[in-house]
Amino acid sequence: MFILSAPSGAGKTTLGRALRKTFPHIRYSVSHTTRPPRLGETDGVDYFFISRDQFEDGIRLNRWAEWARVHGYYYGTSATYLDQTLADGHDVLLDIDVQGTRQLLERYPDSIPIFIMPPDLEVLRKRLETRGTDSPEVIAKRLAAAEEEINQKHIYRHIVINDRLPEAAAALCDVIRRYTSSPRR
């Protein structure tokens, strides 16, 4: 199991997509969330968009391998999906936050956690502003959260700095190659 984490705006989703193109055999775990879809996001592809009540039912019924409340919304990973995918002998890729990584490493200690770093916080701020999806207040919260997440990078086995996308994608793929026998199975 490969776990990608990064501060919001560091390029985790873009790098994850590049990784999945290079390694199409790796199954992608689509997270569940209670946040509304952003422009261009598709239910079941980017996230499973569910209600707060549905998510909280999943908490009560222990359906999540990991879950967290981030920026006022719930995010979680289906335990059933992970257990079945791993039991079937497939590699799996997750795109989750630091809180989720900590939870998953307790349950799946052989996972390979990878942290995507922005070159610095100023570059990250500019990326968040350019994305145009968040208010200045939300960007300030995301930057504060980014500092906290970066301070926890020591729990990750690998760190990839996303300064230039092509180089970061190549570095990430090199990490995955260390653990897989072939980029295409």
Topology:
Blueprint: E1 2-5, H1 12-22, E2 27-28, E3 32-33, E4 48-49, H2 52-60, E5 64-70, E6 73-78, H3 79-87, E7 92-95, H4 98-107, E8 112-117, H5 121-131, H6 136-150, E9 158-161, H7 165-179
Parallel strand pairs: 1-7, 1-8, 2-7, 3-4, 8-9
Antiparallel strand pairs: 3-6, 5-6
Helix pairs in contact: 1-7, 5-6
- Measured on Cα atoms, how large is the radius of gyration? 16 Å
Strand order of the largest sheet: 2-7-1-8-9
Q: What is the number of beta strands?
A: 9
Enter the CATH topology name: Rossmann fold
Low-confidence stretches: none
Give the number of domains: 1
**Alpha-carbon distance between the termini?**
16 Å
The CATH class turns out to be Alpha Beta
In round numbers, the mean pLDDT is 93
SS-based class = alpha/beta
Q: Biggest β-sheet, characterized?
A: 5 strands, parallel
Number of helices: 7
How helix-rich are the residues, as a percent range?
Answer: 40-55%
Can you say what the CATH homologous superfamily is? P-loop containing nucleotide triphosphate hydrolases
Quick overview of this protein structure:
The chain has helices at residues 12-22, 52-60, 79-87, 98-107, 121-131, 136-150, 165-179, and strands at 2-5, 27-28, 32-33, 48-49, 64-70, 73-78, 92-95, 112-117, 158-161.
Report what the structure shows.
By secondary structure, the protein is α/β, with parallel strands linked by helices. The protein has one domain: Rossmann fold. Helices cover 43% and strands 20% of the residues. It is built from 7 helices and 9 strands. It has a 5-stranded parallel sheet with strand order 2-7-1-8-9, sandwiched between helices. Strand 5 (64-70) and strand 6 form a beta hairpin. 29% of the residues are buried.
